[in-house]
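Structure first, sequence second, as always.
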């Protein structure tokens, strides 16, 4: 065994020792300076071998030192509108009444916020984003990429997306949700959908938490369902308070929605309508301030006989002034919390103060 064999073994030991230390560059210099290199007079290849081995040890040590400094993946970038202004988490996008506004993401995804609609970027991630549609219509085209994860929320509904193309509409005044799926597959969660309701290309979903309604079918079949849901919600949300009689003609203008599947009624036709007064059955109402909503639907907080707070899921009907009709979930005489809701939680013992209802 020659001294060059001893040198190779010593370098190998130094490599193993350097792997266990963090101050690599300093120790590399100190240990290499301490090596006893043999004198070589005529044969030069051992020096080349030694130099190569030393360089290998140094390169390996430096690679160990540099490797942990790799940067974390960057979140997606986004530009807004034709002018390409940069967007970030929290950016609001509001389209004017005459044109749409596009959000273009660095992964190739494009979201067109349609006229008179409003949306917000809730979160940007390396593999997707979370968007909130506050009201109106958005046309979404998500680029299908490995590990992509997108989420579009609209009121109490959430649409989970990997890669697809769809239109989503949310009308908060009517509590009406619509989704037309043109390509791919999505999963919808929230109240009437439950968790991860699957929707496939060519299907349309129409839903309302307030009415407890859900309709799913082909896009051609669902056109009438969409109109029916919108009219029903509009009747509940925007019914006139008092019908006024015109003193000049002694006439009363009213609006009615009448099914006409056989096209018996035509535009401009004169008809005689007989209107019978409907006798409303007594209905249970709660103050609108007591009504809360999350992805599972509407709920109220009730104070039970033990003075403890309970969360109750409720089904709601039309709004009557400052009250909302409740069809299930609470009983007459129970106490619902209308003030300080954010300060209490289910199971907490509270001392309730009874508020006098308006009008006595």
């Amino acid at each position: 065994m020659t001294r060059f064999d001893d040198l190779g073994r010593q370098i190998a030991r130094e490599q193993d020792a350097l792997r266990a230390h963090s101050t690599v560059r300093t120790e590399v210099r100190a240990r290499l300076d301490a090596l006893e290199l043999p004198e070589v007079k005529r044969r030069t290849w051992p020096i080349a071998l030694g130099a190569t081995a030393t360089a290998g040890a140094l390169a390996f040590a430096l690679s160990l030192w540099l490797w942990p400094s790799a940067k974390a993946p960057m979140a997606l970038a986004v530009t807004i509108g034709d002018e390409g202004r940069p967007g970030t988490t929290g950016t609001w996008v509001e389209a004017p009444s005459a044109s749409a506004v596009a959000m273009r993401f660095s992964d190739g995804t494009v979201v067109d916020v349609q006229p008179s609609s409003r949306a917000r970027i809730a979160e940007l991630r390396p593999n997707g984003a979370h968007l909130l549609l506050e009201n109106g219509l958005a046309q979404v085209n998500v680029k299908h990429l490995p590990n992509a994860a997108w989420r579009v929320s609209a009121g109490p509904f959430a649409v989970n997306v990997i890669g697809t193309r769809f239109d989503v509409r949310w009308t908060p005044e009517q509590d009406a949700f619509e989704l037309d799926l043109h390509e791919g597959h999505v999963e919808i969660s929230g109240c009437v959908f439950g968790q991860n309701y699957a929707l496939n290309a060519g299907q349309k979903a129409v839903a309302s938490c307030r009415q407890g309604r859900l309709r799913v079918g082909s896009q051609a079949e669902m056109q009438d369902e969409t109109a029916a849901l919108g009219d029903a919600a509009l009747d509940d949300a925007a019914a006139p308070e008092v019908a006024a009689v015109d003193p000049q003609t002694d006439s009363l203008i009213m609006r009615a929605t009448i099914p006409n599947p056989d096209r018996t009624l035509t535009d401009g036709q004169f008809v005689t309508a007989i209107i019978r007064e409907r006798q409303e059955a007594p209905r249970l109402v709660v103050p609108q301030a007591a009504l809360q909503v999350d992805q599972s639907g509407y709920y109220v907080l009730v104070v039970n006989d033990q003075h403890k707070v309970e969360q109750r899921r409720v089904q709601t009907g039309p709004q009557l002034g400052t009250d909302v009709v409740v069809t299930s979930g609470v009983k007459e005489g129970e106490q619902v919390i209308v003030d300080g809701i954010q300060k209490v939680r289910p199971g907490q013992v509270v001392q309730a103060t009874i508020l006098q209802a308006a009008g006595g």
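Margin note: Residues 3-69 form one domain.
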